[in-house]
């Protein structure tokens, strides 16, 4: 009996967007209008690439970025929740599927000593170039019309489950914890026995309730959370059953 916990990262594990938080490193803690207005829907990764070039051009170094990123607060109750999952790793496999990047997530999890809680992190690959600039790439290519060009979370989840099955691992239940519009695609893949946990007041919750109103509700159960302690209460019930 094993459960799979799937977490988004921005506004779910941490209470901010890691990509916009890095702007605190920019001169005057803001980006020039031309750069800010260069974002095109569905092309966030390319936009962040330009942001990282701007930071590099302005002499922002890796250690300053790291210091800034590790000050991001976790969402309410999340430190307790991740501690609880860490103590019960024999029951929970735990992955992150995020549109952030490997460098940011790695820094933040390691600084708080939570990296061992997660079995795998699926996010856009990032690295520092030989000139000290942070670079970011698309996570993968996909054919899903609903998702941003660089990442379909449903495809990630499907491939992960297939790989686990090949290893002989199947899950009693999948618990999907997220907040954003790009979390809807994987939630629609979940089955009747699974559970989606959208963060209260965020886009995912709104999109799930719109589907219910248009009489095409998601198959899985839905439990809204405002503090990660709500999630922990549910998991405690789950492992008692």
Brief sketch in words of this structure:
By secondary structure, the protein is of the alpha/beta class. It is built from ten helices and eight strands.
What does this structure look like?
The protein is of the alpha/beta class. It has a single domain, classed as Rossmann fold (3-Layer(aba) Sandwich), CATH 3.40.50.1000. Helices cover 39% and strands 16% of the residues. The chain contains ten helices and eight strands. The strands form two sheets. A six-stranded parallel β-sheet has the order 3-2-1-6-7-8. A two-stranded antiparallel ribbon has the order 4-5. It starts with a strand and ends with a helix. The mean pLDDT is 95.
Features:
Rossmann fold, globular, 10 helices, 241 residues, alpha/beta, magnesium, six-stranded parallel β-sheet, two-stranded antiparallel sheet
Report the top-level CATH class.
Answer: Alpha Beta
CATH topology label: Rossmann fold
| Helix/strand structural class | alpha/beta
Q: Helical proportion?
A: 25-40%
**Overall pLDDT metric:** 95
- CATH architecture group name: 3-Layer(aba) Sandwich
Widest β-sheet, arrangement of strands: 3-2-1-6-7-8
CATH superfamily: HAD superfamily/HAD-like
Tell me the strand percentage band: 15-25%
Termini Cα gap? 11 Å
InterPro entries: HAD-like_sf, HAD_hydro_PyrdxlP_Pase-like, HAD_sf, Pase_PHOSPHO-typ
Protein name: PHOP2 phosphatase
Family: Belongs to the HAD-like hydrolase superfamily. PHOSPHO family.
Active site: 8 (nucleophile), 10 (proton donor)
Topology summary:
Elements: E1 3-7, H1 18-21, H2 33-36, H3 44-57, H4 62-69, H5 78-87, E2 92-101, H6 102-111, E3 120-124, E4 126-128, E5 134-136, H7 153-166, E6 173-178, H8 184-189, E7 195-198, H9 203-213, E8 221-222, H10 228-240
Parallel strand pairs: 1-2, 1-6, 2-3, 6-7, 7-8
Antiparallel strand pairs: 4-5
């Amino acid at each position: 009996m094993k459960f799979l916990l799937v977490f988004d990262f921005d506004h779910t594990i941490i209470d901010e967007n890691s990509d916009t938080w890095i702007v605190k490193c920019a001169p005057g803690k803001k980006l020039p209008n031309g750069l800010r207005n260069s974002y095109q829907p569905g092309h966030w990764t390319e936009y962040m690439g330009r942001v990282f070039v701007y930071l590099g051009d302005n002499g922002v170094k890796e250690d300053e970025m790291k210091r800034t990123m590790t000050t991001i607060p976790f969402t309410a109750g999340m430190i307790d929740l991740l501690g609880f999952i860490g103590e019960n790793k024999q029951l929970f496999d735990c992955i992150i599927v995020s549109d952030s990047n490997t460098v940011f997530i790695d820094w933040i999890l390691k600084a708080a000593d939570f990296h061992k809680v997660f079995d795998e992190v699926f996010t856009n690959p990032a690295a520092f170039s030989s000139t000290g600039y942070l670079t970011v790439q698309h996570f993968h290519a996909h054919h899903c019309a609903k998702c941003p060009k660089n990442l379909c979370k449903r495809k990630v989840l499907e491939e992960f489950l297939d790989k686990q099955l090949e290893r002989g691992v199947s899950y009693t239940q999948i618990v999907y914890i997220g907040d954003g519009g790009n979390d809807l695609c994987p939630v629609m893949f979940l089955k009747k026995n699974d559970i989606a946990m959208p963060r209260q007041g965020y886009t995912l919750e709104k999109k799930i309730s719109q589907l219910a109103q248009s009489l095409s509700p998601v198959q899985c159960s839905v439990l809204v959370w405002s503090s990660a302690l709500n999630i922990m209460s549910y998991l405690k019930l789950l492992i008692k059953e």
